[in-house]
Amino acid sequence: MKKNLHNERGYTLLLTLVLITVVILLFTTFTIKALSQQKQVEKTDNTYEVTAIAEMGVEYYKVKILNAIKTSETNTQSIINNPDYTAEDKTSKITKLYNDLKTSLLSFKTDEPPTTNTGVKVFLEESNSKSFYLKGSNPPKITVDPVTKNSILEIEVVGKVRKDTKSIIAKFNFPNSIANSKTISTNPNDTIGSPKTFPELIKKPIFPVTTKAESILECKKLTNITEDNIKTCFSNAQDFSFKSESLQDIKNLNLYYHGISKPNNLNQNFNFLNNLYVNHDLIVGNLKPKQNSSYYVSGNTTIETIDFKENHNLRIWSNMNLTLKSLNTTNNFDIYAKNKVTFNSSLSGNAITIYANDIEFNQNSTFGNITNSQLQINNSAIFNEVTTINNTDMLIKGSVYFNGQNPINISGDSELLINKIVFGPNQNKNNVLKLQETTKLCLREYDVPTFEMIQTTANSKLYVIDKGILLPKHTQNQVHIVSEDVFYANCKFSSGSTNDSSIIFELNEMPTKDNIISEVVYQ
Q1: Cα 424 from chain centroid?
Q2: What pLDDT was estimated at residue 32?
Q3: CA atoms within 13 Å, Cβ hemisphere of 7
Q4: CA angle 22–28–34, rounded 5-degree value
Q5: Where are the beta strands (DSSP E) in 206-329?
Q6: Residue 493 clears pLDDT 60, i.e. is over it
Q7: How far apart are CA 6 and CA 493, in angstroms?
Q8: Which has fewest Cβ within 10 Å: 147, 280, 359, 408?
Q9: Contact indicator for 330, 310 with CB cutoff of 8 Å
Q10: Could you give the C-alpha distances from 84 to 201, 288, 292, 441, in angstroms and in order?
Q11: Torsion sign over Cα 231, 237, 240, 243
């Protein structure tokens, strides 16, 4: 009997061991690969997160830079509009503001210590594992592009998630200056544009910004209110009554108001109000402004009564229409209305400046006893009654309507440049407009009836353009019928505008949130 020589038990065992080994190897490989992929995913997630935090930091500092520039722009505009500053004062103050702006941005703190109180490092969660900050080894700097000559503010923001960090270099467009000055002719007779136009009497006012900057605090949060240094705040309150502070004690206050159109207790709560910036319409009852105060209103302005008992150097500017219902004699009153200014009561006084598109004195209101003043109306003027104008210059580019019973006396060194005069039906036709002493009237458009109602004296001058119209003889015959060229050559103001200067200042265009970033480089 033969023995079985093919025993397969050893082969099966060997095959089992091989298969187990292969399975272990495959499992180990898959495990290692899975762990590697998990780490890669985690690393990718961390990279995305830390990059997003760094980008958040760029946006954070972008807002801080924009707010700083806006505040500097607002303060610069206030300097430009201040009539008490000379050109040298404005240049010095504007330069200092710009240098202070650069210093504040270049001194942005960087790196640690890890605390939220210093504003150095901004944490995004309580565990302090996520934050962004400026890199200490690369502090903020301002450079000038060699091609465009534009200034660039560069910062490096670091985003951090636990131990992972990501740096972004952000470059911001930065103004070379907040405002520029330019020299204009010191000769008030020189004009820009066609020589056959009346010269400007008053340089057009630059209306200030009435919206507050982000950095301006609420009035009720002001501290040390009894100090004499200038303070700026905003309020939306109706009556400005705050329990924590007495606004009456705030000296040299600049107030930005965005509340209702008819606030209460404007006088009672602001004894020392310096400038009021209103970002809508304003209706005021009895206004008792302090000396050297200014009111800038972006909308329509209506004031029932202005009490001038002890007030001088008052400025009221409206970026739309301005209505003044009751006034008394005043001095150093500056009025600006982008559209129309309306008087419901008489206006008289000394050193009054009015610049508007149109002006109207309603029934029972008079414009008289005006001295050392200036009036520029770019369209039409309606005067219900005019009495005496002395040493006063007037430019009316449209038609002026004179209504009333009394003669109009123009005296002193007054100069009137008027496009056309229209006398109302109730006007007395006997020498209604009298040019006395050394006054001058330039009348561009006229007819015989109008001309008959103007009287000249020995030293006064009346210039009209020769249009071939047979004009009546005057008693003193001081009428100059001249060619158009001679007319414009002589019809110039001998004295410059009180608001004019050989140097004027204009705000530059500032970067906005849409164009302030010029480049972002991911490190």
Answers
A1: 41
A2: 67
A3: 6
A4: 135
A5: 217-218, 231-235, 253-257, 273-278, 282-287, 294-297, 301-306, 314-318, 322-324
A6: yes
A7: 133
A8: 147
A9: no
A10: 19, 21, 10, 31
A11: negative
d(CA 189, CA 488): 10
How do beta strands 151-161 and 141-144 pair?
antiparallel
> 136-159 in b/e burial notation, b at 16+ Cβ within 10 A?
eeebbeeeeeeeeeebbbbbbbbb
- Amino acid 193: pLDDT: 35
Q: pTM of the entire structure?
A: 0.62
Contact 355, 202 (CB under 8 A): yes
Closest CA to 159 of 46, 40, 52: 52
Q: Which residues pair with 390 in a beta bridge?
A: 371, 411
What is the pLDDT at residue 9? 58
pLDDT at 51: 86
Between 78 and 394, where is the model more confident? 394
- pLDDT by residue (tens digit) across 209-238? 888 887 788 877 776 666 666 778 888 877
DSSP-derived 3-state class of residue 241: coil
* pLDDT (0 to 100) of residue 123: 58
254 in helix, strand or coil?
strand
Closest CA to 338 of 301, 369, 368: 301
Rounded CA separation 235/253 (Å): 12
pLDDT at 179: 86
pLDDT of residue 162: 78
How many other β-carbons are positioned within 10 Å of the β-carbon of residue 410? 23
Question: What is the C-alpha to C-alpha distance for residues 52 and 65, in angstroms, rounded to an integer?
Answer: 20
**In the beta sheet, which residues pair with residue 253?**
231, 273
8 A C-beta contact, residue 454 and residue 433: yes
Question: What does the alpha-carbon distance between residue 346 and residue 366 come to, in Å, rounded to a whole number?
Answer: 4
Please enumerate, as own/partner, the contacts of 181-185 that have beta carbons within 8 Å and a separation of 24 or more.
Answer: 181/87, 181/90, 181/91, 181/503, 181/504, 181/505, 181/506, 182/503, 182/504, 182/506, 183/502, 183/503, 184/501, 184/502, 184/503, 184/504, 185/502
Block residue for tokens 């503010």 = 153
- Model confidence at 414, pLDDT cuts 50, 70, 90, reads very high
Can you give the pLDDT at residue 374?
A: 94
Q: Which amino acid is at 354?
A: I
Beta-strand runs (E) in 378-502: 381-383, 388-390, 393-402, 408-411, 415-423, 433-435, 440-445, 454-455, 461-465, 479-482
Percent of the chain with pLDDT over 70: 77
What Cα–Cα distance (Å) separates residue 440 from each residue in 5, 44, 393, 455? Answer: 145, 83, 9, 12
